[in-house]
Design goal:
Elements: E1 16-18, E2 21-25, E3 28-33, E4 37-43, E5 53-61, E6 83-90, E7 95-100, E8 120-122, E9 125-127, E10 200-202, E11 209-211, H1 229-232, E12 271-276
Antiparallel strand pairs: 1-4, 2-3, 3-12, 4-7, 5-6, 5-12, 7-8, 8-9, 10-11
Length: 280
């Protein structure tokens, strides 16, 4: 599954650079990375105000949802990958700047705690991968945003400035939603799963896209499943005979939890890292 990063520039005389997929947004050039690579600055800009400036958005890999035993207690949704945006940054030297893209947490097809997403980084700044969703007896993972809780298992905690905690299932039988950049995961309510926390929209590429939403927590028995945050940008929880889903591609969102009914649990998430920086 792919991930990403981006970088913007103003017109000449500004930084001349290569790396990633380059697109144009008005007076800016945008470099988008969906896998690890290099952003190479060939020359610095001479403009005294904007010459060597750049903006960067870094979104880490989302956590996968937990998976419970068939017919047993439910599981929490995966937490979103950490989301950080830095503006008016400055390149001080020419050279190669590595871009690291963290992968989404691996899907779980057996009774298991969800997997944390991978970290993403650029030029000394790191976003933390999202926490995996909980299962019975195993707490949700900590991360950029925390994985959702479930019966007999607590939620994971988010990282300050990057995301939020997963929802709580204290005293409930269903799973809770994973945290998102825009909010805490929703708590379970009885047998009904909690929705994932909302993500956050950003227009660094020139188009508004919602990133870093949490995955939904699974229901218990005949309850209602939780949906992914931000209208299913995060992954939806699974139901009887219906697999849970991954977060939306290239958004760093968490995957949905599952109560392990028949069917493959598709709980992978995407890591999105985007730099908006200065290029030729």
């Amino acid at each position: 599954m792919s991930r990403r990063i981006v970088i913007i520039a103003t017109s000449y005389p500004f930084i001349n650079a290569i790396g990633g997929t380059i697109t144009i947004d008005g007076d800016y050039k945008v470099h988008t990375f969906t896998s690890s690579g290099d952003f190479i600055v060939n020359s610095l800009g001479s403009d005294p105000t904007y010459g060597s400036k750049y903006d960067v958005l870094i979104v880490a890999g989302g956590g996968s949802g937990g998976r419970s035993n068939a017919g047993a207690n439910s599981a929490g949704g995966g937490g979103a990958g950490g989301m950080l945006k830095l503006t008016a940054q400055t390149f001080s030297t020419i050279g190669t700047y590595p871009v690291v893209i963290g992968g989404g947490g691996a899907a779980k097809t057996v009774f298991a705690l969800g997997a944390n997403g991978g970290n993403s980084s650029f030029n000394g700044t790191t976003s933390t991968g999202g926490g995996g969703g909980s299962k019975f007896g195993d707490n949700g993972g900590n991360g950029g945003s925390g994985g959702g809780g479930s019966f007999a298992a607590s939620f994971g905690t988010g990282t300050s400035g990057q995301g939020n905690n997963g929802g709580s299932s204290s005293g409930q039988t269903a799973g809770s939603g994973g945290g998102g950049k825009g909010g805490v995961g929703s708590n379970a309510s009885g047998t009904n799963g909690g929705n994932g926390g909302n993500g956050l929209a950003d227009s660094i590429t020139g188009t508004s896209v919602t990133y870093a939403a949490g995955g939904g927590g699974s229901q218990y028995s005949t309850g209602t499943r939780g949906l992914g945050g931000s209208s299913s940008v995060g992954g939806n929880a699974g139901t009887s005979g219906t697999p849970s889903t991954a977060g939306a591609t290239n958004t760093g969102s968490g995957g949905g939890g599952t109560n392990a009914q028949p069917g493959n649990c598709l709980c992978d998430c995407i890591a999105g890292v985007r730099q908006r920086g200065v290029v030729s």
